[in-house]
Amino acid sequence: MANRRITKAERERVDKILTLLDEYYTTEYKCYLNHETPWQLLIATILSAQCTDERVNLVTKDLFKKYKTLEDFAGADLKELEKDIHSTGFYHNKAKNIIECAKTLVTEYGGVVPKEIDKLTGLAGVGRKTANVIRGNIYHEPSIVVDTHVKRISGKLGFTKAEDPEKIEFELMDLLPKDHWILYNLQIIAHGRSICTARNPKCTECFLYDLCKWKGKS
């Protein structure tokens, strides 16, 4: 995709926003999905589609005790796994994808979660969002994860007008310095949960208020 032209004024505004995000949320790397291994994070991220991280963490607390290895997931009974993950929603497709993903990892990758995005997205149930979670958190490859918070708040900040997650990803890659790609996602998730909430954004409390382009801000 063609690089986006950024004006000097816009670059300065972006830099101010990133500085404020760093100051408010720190530059500490944090993964919101509990895991001990790369494959556990992969499965947890698959489960997180249309589900809160809190719910996923409740489910995986017992799930990873029951299925201790990738081989356990690869050999899991579909109906039983569906029951185990039922509360995360879309459990039929998720269970099917987790089993197929685990089988591929065991048979084709020796149980190692690949870091290449084309290999990751070739796994069942893994799109660019999930792939970038793995690349950023496990392999520390600069990646932008476009979740609901990033999509919504990036639009309010005027960073993008796109609706398609992949297009948003590439626009943010043009706009943000690479050393902030992973941090931006973590900070925006925190911002979306605490201040810029979807239903009742706390605009009067927002430290980004003066830099925000959202026309509906109160």
UniProtKB/TrEMBL annotation:
Pfam families listed in its UniProt record: EndIII_4Fe-2S, HhH-GPD
Keywords: 4Fe-4S, DNA damage, DNA repair, DNA-binding, Endonuclease, Glycosidase, Hydrolase, Iron, Iron-sulfur, Lyase, Metal-binding, Nuclease
Catalysed reactions, as listed in the record: 2'-deoxyribonucleotide-(2'-deoxyribose 5'-phosphate)-2'-deoxyribonucleotide-DNA = a 3'-end 2'-deoxyribonucleotide-(2,3-dehydro-2,3-deoxyribose 5'-phosphate)-DNA + a 5'-end 5'-phospho-2'-deoxyribonucleoside-DNA + H(+)
Annotated EC: 4.2.99.18
Keyword Lyase: yes
Cofactor note: Binds 1 [4Fe-4S] cluster.
Lyase found in the keyword field: yes
GO BP annotations listed: base-excision repair, AP site formation
Gene Ontology MF, one: metal ion binding
Role according to the record: DNA repair enzyme that has both DNA N-glycosylase activity and AP-lyase activity. The DNA N-glycosylase activity releases various damaged pyrimidines from DNA by cleaving the N-glycosidic bond, leaving an AP (apurinic/apyrimidinic) site. The AP-lyase activity cleaves the phosphodiester bond 3' to the AP site by a beta-elimination, leaving a 3'-terminal unsaturated sugar and a product with a terminal 5'-phosphate.
Protein name: Endonuclease III
Organism per entry: Anaerocolumna sedimenticola
Gene transcribed to yield this protein: nth
